[in-house]
Amino acid sequence: MTPDTPAETVPPASELITRVRRRRLDLPGAVACQVGGRTPRAVSYEEMALAVQRTTAALALAGVGHGMRTVLLVYPGVELGVLALSLLRLGAVPVMVDPGLPYADIRRCLERAAPEAFIGVPLAHAARLALGWARRSSRIAITVGPRRLWPGPTIAGLRAAAQGRCFSGHPPTGSAGGSAADLANHRANDLVDHPAPDPAALLVDGPAVDLANDPTHDMVAGLASAPAAGLVDDSVTELVNDPPTSSATDLVTGLAAGSLKDLTAGSAGTPVAREPGPDDVALIAYTSGSTGPPKGVPLRHRHLTAQLDLLDELGIIRPGTAMLSTFIPFALGAAALGATAVIPDMDPRHPMRADPAVLVSGIRRYGVATVFAAPALLDRLARHCAARGVVLDTLECVAVAGAPLPLPTLERVRACLPAAARVVSVYGATECLPVAAIEGRELAAARTAHPGAGTCLGRPLAGAEVRVIGVTDDPVGVWSDDLRVPTGTVGEIVVASPAVSDPYLDDPRATAMARIADGDRVWHRMGDLGHLDDQGRLWFAGRRSERVRTRGGDLCTDHVETLLAGVPGVRRTALVGVGPAGEQRPVLVVEREPGARRARVRAAVLEEAARHPRTAALREVLFHPGFPVDARHNSKIRRNVLATWAARRLRGGHG
Ligand SMILES: Nc1ncnc2c1ncn2[C@@H]1O[C@H](COP(=O)(O)OP(=O)(O)OP(=O)(O)O)[C@@H](O)[C@H]1O
């Protein structure tokens, strides 16, 4: 700011960054992040801030800058948090694609986002080369961990270079020592003499070949030589200990990216040209892809601020307490709200494979007060605790989101918590989070009092306005009051809030289906059916695209499934429609509890169904060994996939 710039014209900084910074100033020694796993360690706000400072400089050195879309594929841990915060600080835009998605979906997401920079662990880079992820758009490739067959800098090398250490203390092997320019020339010559091989030629041996030949091959198996935890731990150590010397090739890429001046000055400062303001795009998230391909969701810094404010209102994250989230991006939110983010030792590609014993020991060891997880994983955790008589006595709150919370899961979770602990079901979507919330006791009471009405989501949070409109599968361009349906009538849920994101990335059709213009605000169509009750509470009835369209009218999945969830021997149910819209036959697909006999479960399900008007017409029950679910939460049942499966089964006479 120049002396004569009026204060009001200074753009306010991103609130997320400001909050983390404030926390650091207030309590520098407080633990920002606690990593479990083989080598547990605690990282204070002060250490985190230093790491962010150094990493910001390192990324700038590589040419990452304001507005640059940057893929970030790094295992959960301090390194991921530091990189994400550093990118935000630079005003670069992290592209947060779910690593558990099918490879073709990841490729599609990245093609649409067209990121210029790609930061990833070796496994991610191998996939970049073998599967063409962001191949056309990315021109800066930074490896987190040891670089293997591809060119480009490592983050450790860039950090060292940004500190200027490699020139003063540790000249890279084979270099002439000397100035940065000498070094750059030397290595540049080296590169010209030995140009980077063609990506295809890089796939000469080892796991990368597996990936190239068999794109469906599981990444863990494919590149077993890059053990996840090891990479994370190495990186964490690098962050806090002195950085290792940079390889000269690393530097060349940095230099080529145009930061020669910074480097030759040996500057360890943080070259942030302009910190992002509220209106700058902060990141690109993706919907979970449970009803179709994932859609890119650009979120500005003001959207993140609104999310934080809404989350704050829920009171599920208290400053000074520890929070474990199995959905990793939430850990950033925890740090911004002054809590310690406990990073679970789990593979984010397969949340359901998380070992409940490891989660329990993390919760106990770090005195975790809040757990954030999706219903399926919570169910697994609660079953583990019930079988061993474990009570998670440090927990004050369990927050659950991503899919409706089934009553049997809620009861199981309650049984392993102290009596005073709260279970809070939070409703929202990638495009607007959070929208409403309800405590488990009220949820259970509402469901018992209104069987077949679906799942009560609670009252909208202050700042989020919710309405229900008539059901249509067409776009609704402009708001008019006659779109609304009366209280108690099921329709599509629409939301207006300061957290509602920008339109979808490069997807005008999906945007037209999801948005309703209303003067200076916009309504987001959730794609969910439900109703508002006379107490102002919102209810969930199912996804609009998954409703079953019979001759006698539409059936909502959650109306039916909640009625049958408690039948003995039933683990989960999914209602699907078979046949053309308007003439569909409702089919109930059932996942059984282990040991439950088919004939008995079928009889019990049909008997229960006959007792309720909503389900009385149900005749067909199929058994499925394990429902297809979304990659992020492993909790959203992919009913469109199940419907195709059911149609095939019925055609084959396997009813
Ligand atoms: N507490 C909850 N209870 C019931 N459903 C929930 C809850 N929280 C989230 N959901 C469901 O998750 C949806 C939002 O999920 P998300 O943003 O991850 O992607 P998605 O809409 O499932 O993805 P896609 O649009 O790609 O199919 C909501 O619209 C709702 O269906």
TrEMBL record:
Domain AMP-dependent synthetase/ligase: 30-120, 260-505
Pfam families documented for this protein: AMP-binding (PF00501)
Record-level Gene Ontology MF annotations: acid-thiol ligase activity
Protein name as annotated: AMP-binding protein
